[in-house]
Structure formats: structure tokens, C-alpha cells
Amino acid sequence: MTQLFAVRMDVALPPDMDPAERADLLAREKAYSQQWQRSGHWPQIHRCVGEYANLSIFAVEGNEQLHEILWGLPLFPYMTMTITPLAVHPSDIAHS
Amino acid sequence: MTQLFAVRMDVALPPDMDPAERADLLAREKAYSQQWQRSGHWPQIHRCVGEYANLSIFAVEGNEQLHEILWGLPLFPYMTMTITPLAVHPSDIAHS
Amino acid sequence: MTQLFAVRMDVALPPDMDPAERADLLAREKAYSQQWQRSGHWPQIHRCVGEYANLSIFAVEGNEQLHEILWGLPLFPYMTMTITPLAVHPSDIAHS
Amino acid sequence: MTQLFAVRMDVALPPDMDPAERADLLAREKAYSQQWQRSGHWPQIHRCVGEYANLSIFAVEGNEQLHEILWGLPLFPYMTMTITPLAVHPSDIAHS
Amino acid sequence: MTQLFAVRMDVALPPDMDPAERADLLAREKAYSQQWQRSGHWPQIHRCVGEYANLSIFAVEGNEQLHEILWGLPLFPYMTMTITPLAVHPSDIAHS
Amino acid sequence: MTQLFAVRMDVALPPDMDPAERADLLAREKAYSQQWQRSGHWPQIHRCVGEYANLSIFAVEGNEQLHEILWGLPLFPYMTMTITPLAVHPSDIAHS
Amino acid sequence: MTQLFAVRMDVALPPDMDPAERADLLAREKAYSQQWQRSGHWPQIHRCVGEYANLSIFAVEGNEQLHEILWGLPLFPYMTMTITPLAVHPSDIAHS
Amino acid sequence: MTQLFAVRMDVALPPDMDPAERADLLAREKAYSQQWQRSGHWPQIHRCVGEYANLSIFAVEGNEQLHEILWGLPLFPYMTMTITPLAVHPSDIAHS
Amino acid sequence: MTQLFAVRMDVALPPDMDPAERADLLAREKAYSQQWQRSGHWPQIHRCVGEYANLSIFAVEGNEQLHEILWGLPLFPYMTMTITPLAVHPSDIAHS
Amino acid sequence: MTQLFAVRMDVALPPDMDPAERADLLAREKAYSQQWQRSGHWPQIHRCVGEYANLSIFAVEGNEQLHEILWGLPLFPYMTMTITPLAVHPSDIAHS
């Protein structure tokens, strides 16, 4: 059964990072994210307005897979993660 | 154009609330929530595991409508809100 | 596959609670906890020294089951929860 | 319809930044800010007394535009943002 | 010379307050606020979306007058205040 | 009329700062501070015991002047400020 | 030798306190405070603008006397204290 | 071998507690504390100046005994505990 | 008698650390951890999902030994520790 | 009369500090600490288990001397201090 998690990722890149290194890093991050979006494990990614941060929903087999996906993010060493396991809400019309 | 917001609602009901009053309050909350879910303005509601809290996504016309919906929640006087305006993430495959 | 979670529960009972009501509540809490310990879903419970708090490990099917167990705690309305999803650590000799 | 947001921006420039680079950065920041002030999207900017920070009001089409403006700030990589969506207050005489 | 201050007021009314007492309190608060808005000392009041809070700008003679206005709020005993003295921002086109 | 403010300044100098640069910076800070003390605008400065911090009282024309003084501190780029506007206390015997 | 301390006192009176009890409490607080002001041990008391709080300076023989004075405050059970021991600042012109 | 712990206890008694009940509670707390002081398990207790709090050192057999002592405090239901396990410091002349 | 402690270790390695130095450091960390796991003093180590952190249980002779083990960690200079002494929980079926 | 203070010192040395410089710094710190221990002004120093921190008790003439001692610590530029003035506790059997 699929497990849902909300993950907020706050990114702190050093402002003086080499532009080419930065561009490469962001390109790899984007490709990595889109691969997991296409596989259905990362069904939502939203930009938090005005912040270098995103709020995402993951749909995974369990804790191990979520860790594997997040740990593999090219930007992981620059990120602070806030992780919230989710369950079905009793008022959710999709589950009534 | 529709605006997206993430809202986390933490609920603190007094443990000694009258059971009938509590049941009525929760019934009204559920009905109110489901009405806005059905209208499409509250497309997601998730229970935060192990907490009396939910993480929701709202899709509204703008700030005024979001405030109107949240302010009208029967549980509003017992809630602490954390509100995050959302925008399209450049890596989102739904917008590529 | 079993999912592991660490859960810290901080309890705040009103000091003026009726002693009989309190004794009954704690007896129900203990019975409830021990039922889930015996089923194998709550394999560890430790008292945090000097605090009305415990640190527990849960082994569950997933987020839904963890929520169901925690939500059902007789002391739940008096508790603040801190929940940490766990995965295998690469240095763990039990998994080498 | 115009959406209002309060944004507090706290700036942390490295004290040993090259003076010419710093002067250039601040000149671009000022020009960028004034362009959005003139367009009416950034109607207020106040210095927070004694701090390298400002408190601003933005009037935008919605979340996307606010993000675009803030993300484009030359000082963005050095800023911490606190964003508060605003609505009409029922006591506001301008809306009575 | 007029001094500007940003004030965020967070309101915490007891949910079980007597409805008539509450209505009277809110009516007095509104009248009090509008009197100071009309005099020009409280030029802006915004609702913070989804919260029982407002973000206001005050234009006063100085610290004493600001304190007098805030201390006199009928809701003052239920409020938590965050106060930020403001000055002219060097990028503000209104002062260039 | 004079406005009073309490300002706590926490200083964080890089431990590896060049000693001559550091000595020059501190000498300029001292001279700057004493100039404003002599003018009567900085009537009190206290060392916070055991911390690289001071607690000061400023007596200024208003917010603009306070900002101007603080912004001009040679140590400003290394400081975190906490600013509290002050008013007459009704129990103060100096104002009875 | 006299020891200086800065003390910030935040007051939280229950809004529904009996008015006569409250008036009596505040009268005793004022008398108590003024007695220590007149003795020279409480040389400064400032209202923090917009808050039910004061920032005070005490000049006492040492820790014991400061504790005795604060503990004896009629409002002590309703106060949260922040205490900062002070020493002479090397830039203070009063000590050069 | 004896284990040392630093424990800070912050006390929050309801201001409207019945005076006789309060006096009885405090008398029992004092007797209980002094019994453990005399046994050598609570070798230090200091009042934190200006606060209803103490900082204590405990010398116990281990975690179990520390928990037993703290849990048995008559004021325990009104206390917030901060517990720091201590070890020998390599600069301590008593252990050189 | 064995003492139990929960320890959460948050790791912050500089992203630009030399890869060989990093690999060597992590190899030494793993060997060091596994040596204490094999001796029975470090019976549990869990990865916190999505974070460079672990939650561990230690079973040691007392405070001195726990400090010795943690202080000796090759990653210690890069870690922030949160330490919770544990005792037997009265509901634990393993101790009934 | 002697004044007591509890001081917690948290140390943050850069992990890449030159080993010889570090050794020299720590040797000077140890000698400095032991000199004040021998003089009786620093009667207790405890290691906080698992942290680069100590909890100390100082017995000094007053605030000035405490500041002088702490400011002179070779590690001072790398330390964060938490300072608690202490007084006699009414339950202390040493003062009954």
C-alpha cells in the first residue's frame, strides 16, 4: 500500500558558488526530480512563494523508499528537510 | 486565475468539552469542509499522522476567499494556522 | 514490510484532575499500550528520565496504522507528539 | 483583483564582500526595487529601524507574480523572507 | 515629525466567552480602531489571512502616543503584540 | 520630544579576523560610540556579563535618528540588534 | 560594591480577574515598586511600548537582594522574568 | 559508581491555588527535598535569581534513581524539567 | 547496572569537503560505530528518514562511558547531539 | 560577599582548525581554567555528556569579576554563554 508524506525542502546554496557548477547541480536536480515525478512517487511539487523552498507530496512504498529518494537528491547536502507522514483524513470526500 | 495555498491546521480542543457539544462541533466542521471540497476550493486534506492536525491544499480566487473559508471553520477558534502561498515549481512536470 | 517510527509523547494532565478519573484514565492507557506491545506493534517504550514523557518505537504496516494506534490512546487528548519515521542505517550491523 | 502581501526581508551580506561587487549589487537592487515600485506592484517599502531589513507591502495579481518579483531580487540569495498574505480587515474604514 | 511603526496584533479570545460580552467587546474594538483611523494615527489595518490577527501601520508623534493607543484597545488583554519601528528606506521612490 | 529605546547589540566577529584590522575596527567603534554618548543621544551602555554584547539606552528625536546612529556603527555588519521602544512607566517616581 | 542588572518583566493577568482584586493588586505593586525606587535599588523602570511589560535596571548588593526584591513583587506570580547581569562597558564615557 | 546530573526545575503554580493547599504542598516539597539532600543524593540546590526555578545537582546510582526522585516531588505536576547528564571535565583540578 | 540513553545525532558536513577526506572520515565513523555495536553498548541505530541524522540507543555503564563513546566519534566535530536519559516505563511489558 | 553564578559554555571550534593552533589554544584554556579553579572562583566544572560544552559554577565578588574571568577565556571567541545568577534556595539544608 502506498504511503503519503509531505516534505518541505529549504535550500541554502552558497551565494558564491561557481556558476557552472551551480547550473550543473540544478540541472541534475531537475532531471532527478522529474524522473521520480514520472514514476509516480513524487506526485506534487510546489514552490513556496518568495523562498528557495518547495513543498512536495511523496507517494512511496514506505520509509525506506522515501529516504532513498531524498538522500539521492543532488541538492541534498544543501537542504533542510521537514517531513510529515500523512494518513487519510476522516473528512476527505475522496475516501467517504 | 486560481491561487494555491498550503495550510496546516493544528487543533486544540479542551479535553473536558461536553461530549454532545463536541460531537455537534465536529459534525459541523466535517460538513463545512466537505462543502468546500465539493466546490473544488479545498482539493486536498490529509491527516498529519499521530497529531490532531491536518495539512490541506486550497485552490481559491485569492487571499480574500481563502480567509473567508478558514475564518468560517467551526473549529477555527480552536485552531492554529500555518499558511504557505504556493507557486508553480520550475521542475514540475505538469507545467513543463 | 514493517515500517519503524520513533514517537516521543509528552503528557500534560491537569494537576486538579479528579483522582478517580485520573486513575481510570491511566489504567486504560496502560492496558491499551500493553495490548499493542503484545501484538508486536509497539516493541519499545522508555520513560524519559524526570519528565512525564516516553520515547517509543513503533513497528507498523504504515502511516495509517500508526495514526490509528496513536489516535486511540486514552491519553491522546493530553499529549504532544513528536514523530520521526525511521529507516535502516547503513552502519547498522544487524543489516550488514 | 489585486492581492496584498506583507513581506519582511532580512539581509545578510558577508562583511568581507568586495566593495565594488557590493556597490554594484546594491545599485542593481535599488533599480530593481524602484522599477516595481513605479509599476505599482511594490507600493510600500520601510526600513526596519536598526536592522538590515525592510518591511514591504506588495500588490500583485497573485502568488505567481509575487514569487517572480521576489525571486528576481539581486539580493535574493542573501535574504530571509517572511511572507504574510493580507485580506481586508472588517474594521478598515477604507472598506466600510 | 510623525513616527511610523508596524504592529502585528495576535488575538486569543477564550472560545467559551459569553456571546453578548464578546459582541460588545468587538463592537467597542471596532469603534476604537476606527476613531484612530479617522484621526490619521492608524493609517493601515490588514487582516492576516486565516489568522485572528492584523498587521497595522501607525503614524504617531512618538513612543508615548503609540503606547497610549495600543494600551487602550478593548482587546488589549487578549492580544500579543509585535512592534517594529520603521524609518525611510533609501530605495523608497516616495523619498527620492 | 525625546524618544527612548533599549537596544541590545550582540556582536559576532570572525575569530580569525586580522588583528590589526580588528584593533582598528574596535577603535573606530569606541570613538563613534563615545561621540554619541557625549552628544546625549546614547545615555547608557552596559556590558552583558560574559557575552560579547551590550545593552544600551538611546534618547533620540525619533526612529530616523535611531536608525542613522545604529546603521553607522563600525561593528554594524557584525551585529544582531534587538530594539525595544520605551515609554514612561506609570509607577516611575521620576514622572509622578 | 553595587551590582547592576537589567530585568524585563512580562505580565500576564487573567482577563477575567475580579476588578477590585485587580485594582488592589496593582496598587500594591505600584507602592512596592516605588518603595524600592526611592531606596535607590530600582533606579530605572520603563514601559515597553504596546506590551504589558517593563524593562528595569536594578542596583543591588548582589544576587540575594535582587532575588528578594523580585520575589516580593505582588505581581510576581503573573510575571515572566528575563534577567541580564550587567558590567561596565569599556566604551562607557562615565568610566573612562 | 555515582552519576551526576544537573536538573533545572521551573515551577508554575496556579496563582489562584487555595493558600492552605499551597502551604501544605510547599511544606511537603521542602521535607521531601531535604530528605534527599541529607541522604547525599541531592548535593546542591540553588535558586535561580528572580524566577520560580531552581538549578540542582543530583548524585545518583543511575537513571532509574534520578527518575524515582524527580517523579516523587510533590511539585512534580507543576514543574518543567531540563536534565543534563554530567561527566568529569578534563580540566577539573579535582580529577587531575 | 546498565544505563540506557537515546541520542539523536544531526550531521552537518561541509558540502565542499574533499571527497577522499570525506570517504575516509565516513569509513572510520562506520568502523567505530560497528565496534561499539558489537560490544553491545550501541544496541540500536536508525536513520531518520530524509535527514543526515540518526536516532540511537546506548546501553552503557553510566554517563562517563556514554561521553567517552560519543566524544570519540570521528564525525563528532560535525554533529549536534540531543541526549535523553531513559528509565523503565511502568507500562513496559518487558518489566511487568 | 560571594556571588554564585551557573554558566553553561557551548564551544564551536572550526573542524578544520590547524591542529597545532588548536592544541595550543586548548592548553591555554586548561591552564587558565585551572588557575581560577585554584583561586576558588571557579569551584565546579562539569562536562555535559556527549556535547562540546561544560556547566560550571562561579563564586565571584560580583558581575564585574565574572565578566573579567569569562572574557579572558582563550576559547571565548568560540563560545556561546548561558548565564544564570544564583541565590540561596530556602530548602537548602546547608543554609537552614
From TrEMBL, chains A, B, C, D, E, F, G, H, I, J:
Belongs to the muconolactone Delta-isomerase family. Pfam families: MIase (PF02426). It catalyses: (S)-muconolactone = (4,5-dihydro-5-oxofuran-2-yl)-acetate. Keywords: Aromatic hydrocarbons catabolism, Isomerase. Coiled coil: none annotated. Residues 4-92 form the Muconolactone isomerase domain. Pathway: Aromatic compound metabolism; beta-ketoadipate pathway; 5-oxo-4,5-dihydro-2-furylacetate from catechol: step 3/3. It is an enzyme of class 5 (isomerase). Its EC number is 5.3.3.4. This is Muconolactone Delta-isomerase. The keyword Isomerase applies. The keyword Isomerase applies. It comes from Pseudonocardia abyssalis.
